[in-house]
Amino acid sequence: MATPRLEINLDKIAHNTKVLSQLYGSKSIDVCAVTKVVCGDLTIAKCLVTAGITMIADSKVANLKKMRKGDINATFLLIGTPLLSQAAEIVEWADISHNSEPAVIAELGRQALKKGINHQIILMIEMGDLREGIMPESLDEVVNEVLKLEGIELIGLGTNLACFGSIQPSQEKMNSLSKLSDQVERKFHLKFRYVSGGNSANYNWFKSTHSTERINQLRIGESIFLGVEPVHRHPIPDLFTDAFTVVTEVCELKIKPSVPYGETGQNAFGHVLQFTDKGEIPRAILGMGLQDVDVSGLRPMLDIDILGAGSDQMIIDPKNTDLRVGDEVSFMPNYAALLSAMTSPYVEKSMTLSCEREGIL
């Protein structure tokens, strides 16, 4: 098979999806599957829906468009902060969007009216991570503005944590969001459909809490695809952590000095590297580099050391693995490496599954 490639096991993705849906469902929380790390891949999206997912979220309008045109039977949510310039496309391809800017919401309403529809929104609240969100003290003012708009239907509140500022979801944060939801509902005579408490990072809060309060939705991506919780990257019990494997091959294998020789300066990426002198050692070059994948996010499945990478090659110490030219070498990707491998047009995507029986492919 061609390399570099990303091997994708749909059975394991489906299994993780079902386990997490049952787990969160045990406390009346719906799982919204986030497909941004897999670039809205149609085969993976079909796998998610077959496994029971009814709402899919993505941060790219292009991915939502691809999935909707690909007949993915789900409700589509645009997460992240919508762009004012994309308002017409958002209304066309997203059923719901996260929002925090009144000017953008107003434009979404204008575009929705042109289409003769209502666009549903979830207002995002700033809870400390300092990414997108309305400051809580400004929420009533924003809600009051939103409710005056035609073409807009306010269906919930949400927050985003553990993304930019590494602030963890906690009982205090979830209680605060729940309290805000209660206050807004009472003041404006509303009944929210969703109180969206966060993402895969909410796993530890969920497992430890005795009350989920008003939280009834989580947006889950990393836990589905990599089987871990993102706060400490600990594996979640009963989930597969190897649904994705990055594979490349050895294209050169020689004994060379362990320290470069000659006058030093910056390398191709503007760095000046330091090396430990180990004498002459085996050095293998693999046919995959930074243009293909975030090399720093790869964990070798063999006992080898990654020495560094250029744009299209990776240098390793093969140690005692007896590798030969042409041999394949596999790696487990973290979230950043998976995102880069899925995004790269130079990495072949290879689906492996037995759920072909269920009509996914």
Describe this entry's structure for a reader:
The protein has 361 residues and is α/β, with parallel strands linked by helices. It has two domains: 9-231, Alpha-Beta Barrel (TIM Barrel), CATH 3.20.20; 244-351, no CATH class. It is built from ten helices and 18 strands. It has helices spanning 10-25, 42-50, 61-69, 87-93, 102-115, 139-147, 171-188, 203-208, 222-226, 335-343, and strands at residues 5-9, 30-34, 55-58, 75-78, 96-99, 119-125, 152-159, 194-199, 217-220, 228-229, 234-235, 244-257, 280-286, 298-300, 305-309, 314-317, 328-333, 348-352. The strands form three sheets. Strands 1, 12, 13, 14, 15, 16, 17 and 18 form an eight-stranded mixed beta sheet that branches. It has an eight-stranded parallel barrel with strand order 2-3-4-5-6-7-8-9, surrounded by seven helices. β3, α3 and β4 form a beta-alpha-beta unit. α4 (87-93) crosses α5 (102-115). It is elongated and about 75 Å long.
What's the layout of helices and strands?
Elements: E1 5-9, H1 10-25, E2 30-34, H2 42-50, E3 55-58, H3 61-69, E4 75-78, H4 87-93, E5 96-99, H5 102-115, E6 119-125, H6 139-147, E7 152-159, H7 171-188, E8 194-199, H8 203-208, E9 217-220, H9 222-226, E10 228-229, E11 234-235, E12 244-257, E13 280-286, E14 298-300, E15 305-309, E16 314-317, E17 328-333, H10 335-343, E18 348-352
Parallel strand pairs: 1-18, 2-3, 2-9, 3-4, 4-5, 5-6, 6-7, 7-8, 8-9
Antiparallel strand pairs: 1-12, 10-11, 12-13, 12-17, 13-16, 14-17, 15-16
Helix pairs in contact: 1-2, 3-4, 4-5
